[in-house]
Design goal:
This protein is α+β, with helices and mostly antiparallel strands. Helices cover about 40% and strands about 25% of the residues. It has a single domain, classed as 2-Layer Sandwich (Alpha-Beta Plaits). GO terms for molecular function: L-rhamnose mutarotase activity.
Length: about 110
């Protein structure tokens, strides 16, 4: 399983509403994510709206493509797009700024 971390920017004035929406994600969306290969998916927010996402997947590109083929994802992305800055017309799930992995404790322990 591969680990991925990404950044997005939520509009600070919309952060509370963004958090509220994620406190009760649609059950159909949750099932679609799991069925599409998203595992251990988490989002973390800073007060200024910086959003850090973490997900595990065999292949993030394939998992994103599988989600793109679902109707629920199109509806969810359309409803979430207004919360973000810097997407230049892309849906939020297409605007991830992926971060380079630098260190993982378990990987280094396993290599000992």
């Amino acid at each position: 399983m591969n680990r991925y971390c990404f950044l997005l920017q939520v509009r600070p004035d919309r952060l509370d509403e963004y958090k509220e929406r994620h406190a009760a994600v649609w059950p159909e969306m949750l099932r679609a994510l799991a069925d599409s290969g998203w595992a251990n998916y988490s989002l973390f927010a800073r007060e200024d709206g910086l959003l850090v996402g973490y997900v595990e997947s065999e292949d993030l590109t394939a998992a994103q493509e599988a989600m793109a083929r679902t109707d629920v994802n199109a509806r969810w992305q359309a409803s979430m797009g207004e919360f973000f800055t810097g997407l230049d017309g892309r849906a939020p799930d297409e605007g991830f700024l992926l971060l380079e992995p630098v260190f993982n404790l378990e990987d280094q322990l396993a290599a000992l």
